[in-house]
Every structure is written in structure tokens, then in C-alpha cells.
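WARN  no MSA supplied for this record, continuing single-sequence
INFO  ligand: calcium ion
INFO  echoing inputs
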Amino acid sequence: MNTPRILCAISLATTLLLGLTGCSGAEEPVVVQPTTTATESTTTAVEVITPQPVPLDQLVITLEPVIDGFTQPLFVTGAGDGSGRLFVLEKTGRAWIVRDGVRSAKPFLDLSNAVSTDSERGLLGMAFPPTFPTDGLFYVDYTDRDGTTTISRFTASGDTVDRASEQKLLTVVQPFANHNGGMIAFGPEGYLYIGMGDGGSSGDPKGNGQNFGTLLGAILRIDVSGTDGYAVPPDNTFASHKGARPEVWAYGLRNPWRFSFDREIGDLWIGDVGQSTWEEIDFQPASSIGGENYGWNLYEATHSYPPGTAAASGEFTPPVIEYGRAAGQSVTGGYVYRGSAYEAMWNTYLYGDFGSGALWGLRRADDGTIENRLLLETGFSLVSFGEDDSGELYVVDFGGGAIYRVVAE
Ligand SMILES: [Ca+2]
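INFO  complex generated
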């Protein structure tokens, strides 16, 4: 494995080829090119007709308004039940159902009196497992009145939820109000993944990012298929590692606010929000066995941290994309498009920036090479993307209180 120092040099060479600036002050996202081919080709017995997207430099997207009028919306998702419903989360604690562009009269779930909402706290994430259509069980990530991250299971019945059905599965005390992560999603194998920030403040003063003995600064992986509580999957990298929390799947993260699994091939894409200088997109192939160290707080993207310090040695997984403050201030991880409405957009990973409103698209080839392009300047506080039952993608404007559907021409 290459050290980030080497990769920074590669990144510099790449950026020079592109005529951009080097390891500091990039105006557009820079691809950190791999030096090995990470993905082996696979063969299938059945001939599969693969959608043919247009070249990335010919892809044109627009945003079609779906619905507005929300208060600080920060997530949208389908339930995977084929109902066509969208679920929109408000930071202040309510989740609403949107059906054919119309909001439900009453909230699907109202946790207003259970959440804290200062700083980066609130109702932050929701996930529906494949079993949802049969048992109605789903999961949320919120900070409680004390600011403690809470992963709970609820039971839905139609368009409503019985608050008394709450089962708190996991709580994580947060030392500061910011960097709570908040994303939860089910992986292709059915385990629940939880994004945890480094606990907050600035610069990760407690060193949680590099400490796999804490649940902070990590992505956790747990089995919630049992009746009570959760179990640690036996194949978690740290399941029986002395001094480690067995729930940790990958670490060295600062605030993985939004991540997603490619629903077609299972790759994991993570948007990890940077400190003062660099935003990054991290990548984990479906074949990963976990245990990746994404570098924080020894590295901010491919750059040693704090700035000016010597590059730390060790095995780190560098990002596949990084960008500086000229391009944005807070990365928002998105989704790989796997819907059927816009073949032109197939296989494109969309991501953006909360501060600048830029929306980029990238494509990752089988040999790991990536091409990246600015697709749209939204002007939004682009807080999240979302994916519905059929794989169509959405954008959430936190400030404008609105949800948009991504349309390709
Ligand atoms: Ca990193």
C-alpha cells in the first residue's frame, strides 16, 4: 500500500497534467489516481445487457422540483417497499411521507420532543432494511436531549409509527455538539452501517479518528436482525481484536456525514467532511473485508495534518477525490445512479458540497481510474442526496426547504 505522501505526489503529477494547481488550493476536485488495479474482472454465465451512459463530458442534468415547504430537511429516501413513497427528514425531529409530490397530513414519525437540535444535532438518518415490507421495522439515527447519538428501531404501520415501539439499540455519548455523523444504511449483506463523526470540536482533540477502541470517527457495522439489541458480525475486522471496539468496520474518519452503497455492485462511497482545507470522497470496493484507516487526524485527505507536519507512516487508505476551499467547504456524499429513467446517467456517482452548492459527477472504471466533472452549480445548501425505490436520485436543499429530482437530458 502506498503512503499518502506518495499519493500526494501522484496527485500533484495528475493535477499538473490537468493544468490545475498542485497539492494546495485546487479549484476543482482532483482525482487521486490509484496505482494498482483494484477490481478484478468477473465473468457471468448469463449475458447481461448493460445500460450505455453518454460520455461524462456530454452528460447534462437538471433538477426538477418535487416539493418544498420543509423546515431544515436533511435527508430523503425510499423505503424499498415498492410503494413509491419518499420519506423526508427534518433536522428538528419530524419525518414526513411524500407521495406523488404531496406531503402527508401528519408526520410519519415525530421525535421533536426527543431530539436535541443545536449545532449539528437533530434527526439525522433513517434506513429501511429489505425486510421492511413484511415486518415494518426500520431504523433511525438521532441525537437525544443530551446530545447522545441514538440508533433506534421503530415499527411502522401504514403511514404512521407507534412511538412506543422504539427500541434503543445503540447509544454513543458525544463529547461535543458537532461531528455526529448521522448516516445509517444497510449493506448488500444485510448488516446496518452507521457513520460516526470524531466527536467534534476542531482537529479531533481526543484523537478518536485513529482510535479503533472508540466508536467515534468510524463507520460501524452491526447485525440488527435479532429480536433484541444487536450483534457484532463475526467477520468484522476488529470482532476479536484486543483493545478495539468490535463494531468498528473502518476508521480514521472525521465526519462521514453521508455515505451510500452502490445498489448494483455493492461498493461503498463515503463523503468525509474536512477540517480547514480539504474535502474528500473515500471509496471501498464491495470486496473489502473492512479495517480501512482513512487517515484522520493524521491526514486531511492526502495532506498531512496538522498542516506542515511530517507525513505519518502506516497503512492509510487515501481518498479517491479531494478538493480545496475554492470548490467548497463541506462535502456531501451521494449515490451511484442505478435508476432506469435516464440511461445517460447510468454508473455516475453524484456528490456535492453543502457550502458552495456545486454538484459533481464521477465515473469509476473497472481498473479503478476515475473521471470527474462539475455537472451543476445548484446555489443550494446541498445537505444530502437521496435514492428512491427505483433508484432515481434526489437532492435536498437544507436552506430552501425543498426536494428536487435529478433529471438527465
Ligand atoms: Ca481521510
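Residues 252, 272, 280, 294-296, 299, 301, 319 surround calcium ion (CB under 6 Å).
INFO  checksum written, moving to next record
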